[in-house]
Specification:
The complex is a heterodimer of chains A (556) and B (253). Chain A is α+β, with helices and mostly antiparallel strands and 556 residues long. Chain A has 19 helices and 17 strands. Chain A has an eight-stranded antiparallel sheet, with helices on both faces. Chain A has a five-stranded antiparallel sheet with strand order 6-7-10-8-9. In chain B, the strands form two sheets. In chain B, strands 9-8-7-10-6-1-4-5-12 form a nine-stranded mixed sheet, sandwiched between helices. A two-stranded antiparallel sheet of chain B has the order 2-3. In chain B, α2 packs across α5 and α3 packs across α4. The chains are: A alpha+beta (556), B alpha/beta (253). Chains A and B meet through α1, β11, α14, β14 and α15 of A and β11 and α5 of B. β14 of chain A pairs antiparallel with β11 of chain B. The site of flavin-adenine dinucleotide has 36 residues of chain A, from β4, α8 and β10. Chain A: It comes from Lophiotrema nucula. Chain A: This is D-2-hydroxyglutarate dehydrogenase, mitochondrial. Chain A: Its cofactor is FAD.
């Protein structure tokens, strides 16, 4: 008996640190280096090392700088009413239960409110005095109607894992948190359509679907905390996009509440519905600026029985592109992920995590591919043919194929653990960009050259930057440009911006592929959207939210 | 001696990461799920390959599995990790083997192949019987060292460090010998692509139980398989006093 427990415990430990590390999903990180900079780069704060310890004292939420101090040019809009006791009493009266209202006005509740005021990266912090947690669409409707009539600004909040500061207030906006709307409403085994409240946690939804042999068409590192409503509001991309497509296609319907309290009931379960403007698309990726999503209906594919993962070493970025092309040719419909990591990011991952890399020798580039299909034998045959082809033709220098689920987890860990472990030296400047695939890695080289020339990158303490690395969802032409640093440094920031944005603009790329705009990318939206577009967006905003109470001070 | 002839039995089991579920008829668990090599057997293969890499004279590493047709995949994995060839005894539905049956079969293989070292997992994670290695050593009349965390071979003398409660024990014995592996013995390697390709060309011999003419009829009967009772949800107490009164309420104090 004892032996089998011992066995289970030690293997479980291995799987915990692999795919989507568990501590990553549930815990807020403690940051070591305080975010002081003014850049729009998102940051990944210092993470626990492989023994689970964090070097340096964790920064308490209160040490996070107020957004209003970081961005002194932002002023509280005086058209918004200041919160009074009368307002708070109205909310308490509506929502009843103690836990549904966190009242920081009539008493000091700062410890309770802090988690809703500051974001996941510990970079943004607001001054909200009130958090409300409605339990039904009707309650959301009454809340918004009341706020709209009384000119009270609000921030819709899901799991608060957003990476651009969109999910927390800037001044005293009321936080409307969806956590209590967490019911799965229905699931149809035949069509695969799930209807659920916006506040259902992504992992909960996916586990529910797994029981029914289906899969949520989205997966990302924050799945243990983020909510499906938040995912839709940010149009999150994640690891399964290559296979299942974007939420713009998979979300079939939305139930949302407009600022005036109107409930937009469009929980369609139809795949085809060409009856005029597809208004729900405005909520997908709208980042909570025109209304609150209260429920979604989404098309969920059958869960694949047969999953395989291989990990390659390649001699150049060109070879990685060739491998991607061949993967599409040989694996077609079963290819479910194609991720690229440069050798530098894998090296730093190895150093920071203390883990062994799957391949003995070092390679300039690595790729991870995943296949998912319905028939193990068919998939294996396709995969074998592909692997033989890329090995024999020299596209791939070396590689491994996972033989069991634990190895699948370990190989994924080499990709998913990268963002986390790059924070080991103190902090990371992160850019999430869409760039034509052929030029994707050029930006990493160009940025590294720039920082090297400026004498900012090096192996010892005197250099602020540790390295310049690139990795990302190659299958989606989505690059994560990361600059791990020992300390946030103005000189580094000056080299990075606007250089990176201009570079991307010249190639008609996107300055924010997945993570949205929020407050972080607000000043840079012009690099990806022209004046006409901005005007159209503003018209829509004014139409649905004439008083501007929805998530003010953010990108629009 | 011209080098060791190592036999490594491997078993195809429900993947460690899959949560087994009781089947509808309550006769066993649902087997229509992902399978892989028993993790302890990966350690056995790895150790055999490392012995060779450490320049212990090894003439041959033979991977062996008795089980359904798909067990051949597991043998291929073993060969990709470094085994030289494989034998697959195909068992059809209703021919499932119990530990004694496997031990008898392995004895025949040892005799036929003139093996002088058998490295087995200390248990397979499906049945958790942890008996095969010991039974095999008994049937052969060989020395055995179970739960090995370190193996060293010099000439025909074998030193095995094994894990026991509260510490380790070092055993010394002469070949031929049976060793069973424990978790801390090594860290199994990945099957690399070039080796997976080479493994395809390595010989894999197919046999049936009949070829060995053994009585492997089961002696055990599974009466019924049921899920363990679901865990009841816990309660959260506010402070130490709350905990003490709760424990008293439950009669634990
Ligand atoms: C470790 C980690 C990994 C990540 N990986 C990826 C990735 O691979 N791909 C990717 O695209 N993103 C990724 N992200 C960022 C991603 O955008 C968020 O994790 C997630 O989609 C946001 O969900 P949430 O419930 O936490 O929303 P929040 O952070 O609470 O909110 C995000 C935005 O949506 C709005 N919002 C939230 N809920 C609603 C609602 N019900 N109605 C209207 N508006 C709402 C908020 O106002 C805010 O503007 C990652 C984040 C982390 C921390």
């Amino acid at each position: 008996m004892a032996t089998s427990y011992r066995f289970a415990a030690s293997l479980r430990r291995a799987s915990l640190t692999s795919r989507a590390p568990a501590r990553f999903q549930k815990l807020r990180p403690a940051s070591q280096v305080r975010w002081t900079g003014n850049t729009s780069a998102t940051s990944e704060p210092h993470q626990p090392d492989n023994k689970g310890t964090v070097k340096g004292a964790p920064a308490p939420a209160k040490a996070v700088k107020f957004t209003s101090e970081t961005y002194p040019e932002l002023q509280r809009n005086s058209k918004f009413t200041n919160l009074t006791q009368e307002h708070v009493d109205w909310f308490k009266n509506l929502l009843g239960s103690e836990s549904a209202v966190i009242d920081g006005l009539s008493k000091d509740a700062s410890a309770d409110i802090e988690p809703f005021n500051s974001d996941w990266m510990r970079k943004y912090r607001g001054h909200a005095k009130l958090v409300v947690k409605p339990q039904s669409t009707e309650e959301v409707s009454k809340i918004l109607k009341y706020c709209n009539e009384n000119m009270l600004a609000v921030v819709p909040q899901g799991g608060n894992t957003g990476l651009v500061g969109g999910s927390v207030p800037v001044f005293d906006e009321i936080v409307i948190n969806l956590a209590k709307m967490d019911k799965i409403r229905s699931f149809d085994q035949v069509s695969g359509i799930l209807v659920a409240d916006a506040g259902v946690i992504l992992e909960v939804a996916d586990n529910y679907l797994a029981e029914k042999k289906h899969i949520f068409p989205l997966d990302l590192g924050a799945k243990g905390s983020c909510q499906i409503g938040g995912n839709v509001a940010t149009n999150a991309g994640g690891l399964r996009l290559l296979r299942y497509g974007s939420l713009h296609g998979n979300v079939l319907g939305i139930e949302a509440v407009l600022p005036d309290g109107t409930i937009v009931d469009d929980l369609s379960k139809l795949r085809k519905n060409n009856t005029g403007y597809d208004i729900k698309q405005l909520f997908i990726g709208g980042e909570g600026t025109i209304g609150i999503i209260t429920a979604i209906s989404i098309l969920c594919p059958q869960r694949s029985e047969a999953v395989n993962v291989a990990y390659f070493g390649l001699e150049s970025y060109d070879k990685a592109q060739e491998a991607f092309r061949e993967a599409k040719k040989y694996l077609g419909e079963i290819l479910s992920a194609f991720e690229m990591m440069d050798g530098r990011s894998q090296n730093l991952f190895k150093k920071a995590s203390g883990k062994k890399l799957p391949l003995e020798e070092e390679h300039p580039f690595y790729c991870l591919i995943e296949t998912s299909g319905s028939n193990t034998d068919h998939d294996s045959e396709k995969l074998q043919n592909f692997l033989e082809h890329v090995m024999e033709s020299g596209i791939v220098s070396d590689g491994v194929l996972a033989q069991d689920q634990t190895q699948i987890g370990e190989l994924w860990g080499c990709r998913e653990g990268v963002p986390e472990h790059l924070g080991h030296w103190g902090g990371v400047y992160k850019y999430d960009l869409s760039i034509p695939i052929s030029e994707m890695y050029d930006l990493v080289n160009a940025t590294r050259e720039r920082l090297t020339k400026a004498g900012l990158v090096g192996d010892d303490e005197s250099h602020p930057a540790v390295d310049v690395v690139g990795y990302g969802h190659m299958g989606d032409a989505n690059l994560h440009l990361n600059v791990p640093v020992r300390r946030y440094d103005k000189a580094v920031e000056k080299e990075l911006e606007p250089f990176v944005y201009e570079w991307v603009q010249k190639r008609n790329g996107s300055i924010s592929a997945e993570h949205g705009l929020g407050i972080a990318k607000k000043p840079f939206i012009g690099y990806s959207r022209n004046g006409t577009f901005l005007k159209l967006m503003k018209q829509i905003k004014d139409l649905y939210d004439p008083n501007g109470i929805m998530n003010p001070y953010k990108y629009i | 001696m011209s080098g060791l002839r190592i036999l490594v039995p491997v078993k195809r089991v429900i993947d460690y990461a899959v949560k087994p579920r009781v089947n509808r008829t309550q006769t066993g668990v649902d087997t229509n799920v992902k399978h892989s090599m028993n993790p302890f057997d990966e350690l056995s293969i790895e150790e055999a390959v490392r012995l060779r890499e450490r320049k212990t004279p090894v003439q041959e590493i033979l991977a062996f599995s008795a089980g359904p047709a798909k067990s051949a995949d597991i043998i291929r994995t073993a060969m990709a990790m470094g085994a030289d060839r494989g034998i697959h005894v195909q068992c059809n539905e209703g021919e499932e083997l119990e530990p004694l049956g496997v031990a008898k079969l392995l004895k025949k293989v040892v005799e036929g192949e003139k093996s002088d070292l058998v490295i087995l997992g200390k248990q397979s994670i499906d049945d958790d019987a942890a008996q095969t290695g010991q039974m095999l050593a008994g049937l052969l009349g060989w020395s055995q060292a179970t739960q090995a965390s370190k193996v060293q071979i010099e000439g025909d003398s074998v030193t095995v460090v094994r894990e026991v409660d509260g510490g380790v024990e070092t055993l010394k014995a002469k070949l031929p010998m049976v060793i069973t592996t424990d978790l801390r013995l090594n860290e199994p390697r990945y099957a690399s692509l070039p080796n997976i390709m080479k493994a395809k060309k390595k010989p894999l011999e197919k046999k049936t139980l009949k070829d060995y003419g053994l009585d492997t009829a089961p002696r055990l009967k599974t009466v019924k398989v049921t899920e363990p009772p679901a865990r009841k949800g816990g309660v959260k107490v506010d402070d130490v006093d709350g905990m003490i009164s709760k424990l008293k309420e439950l009669g634990a104090l």
